[in-house]
Amino acid sequence: FPVRPDNMMFGDLPWRSVHEMKLFEGRIRDAITSGFIKTVT
Prior knowledge:
This protein is mainly alpha-helical. It is built from one helix and no strands.
């Protein structure tokens, strides 16, 4: 993820919502914790 200043609030982008960004973050954290990446297929 790009670096952002402290206390900067996330906002929806035209192509991505804050909810989707949080889901991506969760998947990345899960992959790091488990040591491998899970795919949908």
